[in-house]
Amino acid sequence: MICDNLKIFSQNVCKNSLIVNTILEAQSSFDIIFLQEPLWSIIHTIPSSTSYKGEKLVRAPHHPNWLTFARSPTNESDFPRVLTYINIRVSHLCFSLHNDIFNHRNVSCISFINQGFSFFLINVYLNSSQMALKYFKDTETNISNVIIMTGDFNIRDSLWDSNFPFHSIHSDMLFDIADSFSLALSSPTENFPTRFSDNNQNLNSVLDLVFTQPSFTKFNYHYIYPDWKLMSDHAPITVNIHINDENIPTK
Fold it and tell me: Which residue of 26, 63, 211, 226 has the lowest C-beta tally within 10 Å?
């Protein structure tokens, strides 16, 4: 079966499992869900050969209608800060997590196959020290057909935030990384903040961004839903990916 359209939902869920469960239940019309800062919690204990108390089973929320993709942590301080859910109705596209390309708790690279070609999706969370940017810069990659890079980038810049009058040096590095994947900054259909301040002294800001293939004529914008700030201080972003003859590489 050939897919010509994918609907993507992206949000920083602020380590709130209730938000995650609500998204998985309420957003079933979407094909892909990108989350940043998910909560990893103890589900139960499992038998252990080294401890009579058993081992703690820690995972993110699961749902029968969604496939979960996340990097396996190496220790208790290494739980992923990005998480991807794939709706089972598009599982025929053979989605796969690529730790062989990016192996970092703040970066997730997912591939799928359509019309015999592999396409890549990148989910990113940048913390205040910009660890993922440094990781991207230091990691040599040779992948093509990246069609989207999105997430919480935690960078304020006048280029995308009208309430912020300055330019960030981190933005230059971010654009260099996006350019290496042949991606360009997407424009929202309406300009809303994507993060809402919890006090009156700080302004709302735009921290969640979308980078897409500029050659996709039907794929150069995204939607911001500020009403969801009632659930999280980050508003979700949605994107429609149209995959047609313009996107398919020439053999």
Answer: 26
Do residues 81 and 125 touch, judged by C-beta distance below 8 A?
Answer: yes
pTM, two decimals, is 0.89
List CB contacts of 154: < 8 A, sequence separation 6 or more. Answer: 125, 126, 127, 128, 130, 207
Confidence band for 251, pLDDT divided at 50, 70 and 90: very low
For helices 131-138 and 169-180, the axis angle rounded to 10 degrees is 40
Q: Which residues contact 101 (CB under 8 A, 6 or more apart)?
A: 109, 120, 141, 143
In which element (H, E) is residue 55 found?
strand 55-59
Quick count: other Cβ atoms within 10 Å of Cβ 114?
Answer: 20
CATH of 5-242, one of 3.40.190.150, 3.50.50.60, 3.30.499.10, 3.60.10.10: 3.60.10.10
Q: Which range is least confidently modeled, 52-61, 109-118, 207-216, 224-233? A: 52-61
Bridge partners (DSSP) listed for residue 28: none
Token representation of residue 68: 């979960």
Token pair listed for 62: 């699961």
52: β partners: none
| Rounded distance between C-alpha atoms, residue 105 and residue 79, angstroms | 7
Tens digits of residue pLDDT in 144-201 = 899 999 999 999 999 999 889 999 999 999 999 999 999 999 999 999 999 998 776 5
CA distances in angstroms from 114 to 2, 29, 88, listed in the order given = 6, 20, 16
